[in-house]
Amino acid sequence: MTIPSFVVGIAGGTGAGKTTVARLITENVGESVTRIPIDNYYEDLSHLDLSEREAVNYDHPSAFEWELLREQLSTLLEGRPIEMPVYDFEIHNRKNEPTTVEPTDVIIVEGILALYDEKVNEMLDLRLYVETDADVRILRRIQRDVIDRGRDLEGVIDQYLSTVKPMHDQFIEPTKKHADLIIPEGANSVAVNLLEEKVMAEVHGDAVRDWERPSPETRRDRR
Ligand SMILES: Nc1ncnc2c1ncn2[C@@H]1O[C@H](COP(=O)(O)OP(=O)(O)O)[C@@H](O)[C@H]1O
Ligand SMILES: Nc1ccn([C@@H]2O[C@H](COP(=O)(O)O)[C@@H](O)[C@H]2O)c(=O)n1
To answer: Which residues take part in binding ATP (predicted)?
Structure first.
């Protein structure tokens, strides 16, 4: 049984480079890492038809099933496997079959609101916020949504202006204050190399953890 020793949260706006950072910092540690994309914890919307699901605001915190994420994360932290839901962006819903996820030394929790929920934050050993300019992010998003997620250009633009951008400003960007580190320009190589070394040290058991998370009060005092 593996009890995870290092849980990293990676938040940031759409297209900021969260998935890329997660991939790069873990690419040399093989199977010792588990990635938990919080997209998989979008609420089950099977009770809605496709056109209703298309109209949902997927950037609002209420779109996520936080209780399930908390529960499954703490199960992994106890060294037990979970049945993680799997999300399908083309149908705006979970797939029928979940996937079994075993606990590993390092766990990466990644998504636009990965630093939003207080209870999830408490389970994170390291909180990262990936920050990339909005113009770069929207260009990346258009490309990705049209090519990989089966969307049309007009729909991507409408969604960006009506929900993605306002929710980013209201809910996602403010979670930056919970971050231990802010990574500018997404996958910048200096930050990626440092974090990769840290992840490898955790996996090989020679990591030195000499920090203690400051309480919210101490953080405020430091400003
Ligand atoms: N530093 C970077 N330079 C160039 N392209 C990048 C960089 N980081 C990410 N990308 C590209 O931008 C797109 C979105 O990145 P991704 O990591 O999926 O973002 P997120 O997970 O934050 O939505 C992907 O096509 C990825 O290859
Ligand atoms: N059915 C859905 C669900 C989510 N989205 C968008 O995905 C974005 C989050 O994923 P990133 O990889 O970009 O971080 C989020 O901004 C949602 O708008 C969607 O379009 N459709």
So the answer is: 12-19
Minimum CA distance residue for ligand 1 atom 16: 17
Kindly report the CATH number assigned to the domain that includes residue 90: 3.40.50.300
Q: Which atom of ligand 2 is nearest to the CA of 163?
A: 18
Which ligand is nearest the CA of 186, by number? 1
Query: Is 15 inside a domain boundary?
Result: yes
Q: Is the CB of 15 under 6 A from ligand 1?
A: yes
Tell me how crowded residue 155 is: count the other CB atoms within 10 A of its CB: 12
- Nearest C-alpha neighbor of 25 from the set 6, 38, 40, 12: 6
Name, in order, each residue with C-beta under 8 angstroms of 145's C-beta and a sequence gap of 6 or more: 151, 156
How large is the average pLDDT for residues 176-195?
92
Average pLDDT in the 22-30 region? 92
The residue range of the domain holding 87 is 6-206
Q: Do β-strands 181-184 and 93-94 pair in parallel, antiparallel, or remain unpaired?
A: unpaired
Nearest-atom index, ligand 1, CA of 112: 22
- HEC profile for 47-94? CCCHHHHHCCCCCCHHHECHHHHHHHHHHHHCCCCEEECCEECCCCEE
pLDDT of residue 185: 83
Q: How many structural domains is the chain composed of? A: 1
Nearest to 197 by CA among 6, 2, 1: 6
Question: Is 216 inside a domain boundary?
Answer: no
Report the pLDDT value the prediction gives residue 76, as an integer from 0 to 100. 97
